[in-house]
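Example 355.
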Amino acid sequence: MASALFSPLTIKSITLKNRLAISPMCQYSAVDGFANDWHLVHLGSRASGGAGLIIQEATSVSPEGRISPEDLGLWKDEQIEKMQQINRFIISQNSVPGIQLAHAGRKASAASPWNGGRKVAIEKGGWNTVAPSAIPFYDTDPAPLALDLDGIQKVIADFKSATKRAVQAGFQVMEIHAAHGYLMHQFLSPLSNTRTDAYGGSFENRIRFTLEIVAAVQAEWPENLPLFVRISATDWAEGGWNLQESIALSRILKEKGVDLIDASSGGAVTQQQIPVGPNYQVPFAESIKMEVGILTGAVGLITEAAQAEEIVASGKADLVLVARESLRDPNLGLTFAHELKAEIAWPKQYERAKL
Ligand code: FNR
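Predicted structure in complex with FNR:
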């Protein structure tokens, strides 16, 4: 029987050759936001490895929006060129280059995981962070600055300019990062947003910032190219953002022209209780797809070919995003196709390994 995972997915003018995407993964390897040969080889090898879509790591729209000082960025034109080279290579492998645009808000200015992941002091190259409200992620962190209306407008404008650069860089899929406790999610969740103005309080107010960013991105992003939004479908915490709100937001995003909801979860608060296990986030992709009738992506502890195949074949999600397993095996697309006996084109250089 033909593989569902290795069937093409057409979204607007782009056809992914299969439903396996490489989930965005920070590499903490950029200098001043610039991509380099590490990013070329990391992203490029996963493209030659058979995935249909390669989403570049959370790429910051401004220096202060970086999770770590070593994040990629698109806040200046000079940052475009290396990404053009990477994207040309990805396309040469018959894969599709995507970008995740992000702002880390109160979670910015953090060290790379191998340096402990906690706040980088200003004298060591860190910076003051911004957020909807002056509530730090860790109690021991300095409080972020609550964005005023001008500050909000600046972030929105930064997303617009970064999108323009992303188009110039040749990306073909845009993903807006509204998950994992970063700035948009900080506005969505009542646990991090205690504002009393038009951006806080009611559901309509908490989603306003995300909707304004989506509109700013759409002003620059070509209408015929796919637009994804990654959300955390729940905070896994009492009083937090939840699945019902995610469904309601997804419905609005669909009306606004978003093509796919990439359903992740968590990251908003330290008191989250996550029942981690294989497929643990798949029910979110499934509920949003069923309730809203929008394409969804499933992510999180999807590590096996048969598991990924079942998710797509049973209609729980339209796309499977894999992160860590693709670090273990950059040729994950080739491996999964082999296991599922799906007939796919291998890079000609590798064909002698195709059994
Ligand atoms: C991640 N993740 C992540 N998510 C995201 O939306 N933007 C990002 O830049 C990153 N960065 C990142 C770096 C690294 C090294 C890892 C391992 C993970 C989360 C990732 O995309 C994915 O959602 C989770 O890892 C769950 O999927 P897996 O790893 O179980 O397949």
